Amino acid sequence: MKYVIAVGLWMVALGACQVATFPQVVEEQEEVSGAELFGPDALTVMTRGLSMAASLERVLETPGAVEAFEALRRTDVSAQARRLADEIQYARPHLIGLQQVTQVRRQSPGDAIFGGTRPAETPYLDVLPVLLGELEARGLHYREVARVRNADVEVPLLTSALPSYDDMRVTDFDVILARADVKVSQAQVGHYQAHRKVSQPGSGPVELPRGWASVAATVEGRTYRFVSTHLEPAPDEAGLRVQLAQAEELIGSLRREALPVVLVGDFNTPANLGLVGAPTYRELLLAGYVDVWAHRLGMKTWSSAGEAMREVPRKAERLNLVLVRNPVAPVPRRLGPVLAYGVGSSLEEPRLDPWVSNLTGVVARLRMPQVATRN
Question: CA 174, 98, 267, 358 torsion: positive or negative?
């Protein structure tokens, strides 16, 4: 994702003034063998986007929603669920943060074109139940433990030249899944006050809220606050302002959290641009969060097609992140070792832009030092 030149120059100047004060959260790498990552006390997490063929923006911007609906109709939900189940089966994560979990419902005939307000309720497409069924069929037992509903948009769908219309309703969720052996409590969800509005042809602006979901998860006697979120994209300065405001809200809501925090999601801020290139990424690091990717063993990704680890291009844009933070403690806060790799579509597809990859998730297996916390 490209940022405007003015924003980049502004951040370079800001970085020159502030880089000396950057907090050294990871003071040293923990001197333990990488083999200990496969011990029972290591934590494995996944963050993964389930973006469908029709985004909310595409649904809103397409007259009659015909193109968006055709893209959805061609979606092979079973194939998508199998690919994701392959990734989960390989990693066996304790906790999974899913973003852009799309649910599509239809109403026929529709009433939205005439100003009706009855919501569409007939299921048309929903990948999450198919995924959970696929996991159960493989003997992998996961359950949904938290869900936040974000944007919920309903538009008229042109079905014939008469004309006649159905209604298509697209709802976006962020969901947390937990493995059966993980004890979960204190599920929480919330929305950011900062959010974007888009114009819908023939009607007023439509609000597109975004939110976060979190749980307290206990793995082998160790308890963590696991948080999943999806921040606003920032293709321009207006989007960047919303994204930064959402990040500030998120940081503030977790500031008093006593448990070690594992924060995952699609942050829409390119981590590969470094501290002075991506304002939101920088703010998260300044708040004491550590990007586990920077402390991983190796530079690989996993392809479900080849069932193998492959090298990640150095200039691949990283928007999906796993960040960790320990509460303030009188001992050095250390992280290590970390096994992290990208998941999503294969990187073997030809790309014209060397800055863009089609990775849509990250798996990380890590060890966080435990400090005294209050329950």
Answer: negative
Q: Is the pTM of this model over 0.85?
A: no
For residue 276, the domain's CATH number is 3.60.10.10
Is 13 a domain residue? no
The predicted pLDDT at position 88 comes to: 96
Which segments in the chain show pLDDT lower than 70?
Answer: 1-40, 52-74, 112-114, 161, 200-204, 274-277, 298-316, 327-337, 345-359, 369-375
Would residue 207 count as lying in a domain? yes
What is the rounded distance in angstroms from the CA atom of residue 253 to the CA atom of residue 213? 12
Instruction: Please list, in sequence order, all residues whose beta carbon lies within 8 angstroms of the beta carbon of residue 217, skipping any fewer than 6 positions away.
Output: 94, 95, 178, 182, 183, 184, 223, 224, 225, 226
Alpha-carbon span 107 to 162, nearest angstrom: 18
Domain span at 252? 36-366
Number of domains in the chain: 1
C-alpha–C-alpha distance, residues 162 and 165, integer Å: 9
* Two tokens, residue 78: 């079973």
Q: What is the pLDDT of residue 274?
A: 66
Tokens of 173: 């969720």
Spell out where the chain has E strands: 43-49, 95-107, 122-126, 142-160, 164-179, 183-191, 196-199, 205-208, 211-219, 222-230, 261-266, 290-291, 300-303, 308-311, 320-325, 338-344, 359-366
Q: How far apart are CA 341 and CA 304, in angstroms?
A: 13
**Does a structural domain hold residue 22?**
no
Question: Positive or negative CA dihedral for 61, 67, 69, 73?
Answer: negative
Task: Indicate the SS3 state at residue 352.
Answer: coil
The answer to the question of residue 96 being in a domain is yes
Strands (E) in 27-82, as ranges, are 43-49
pLDDT digits (tens, 9 = 90+) for 160-178: 767 777 888 889 999 999 9
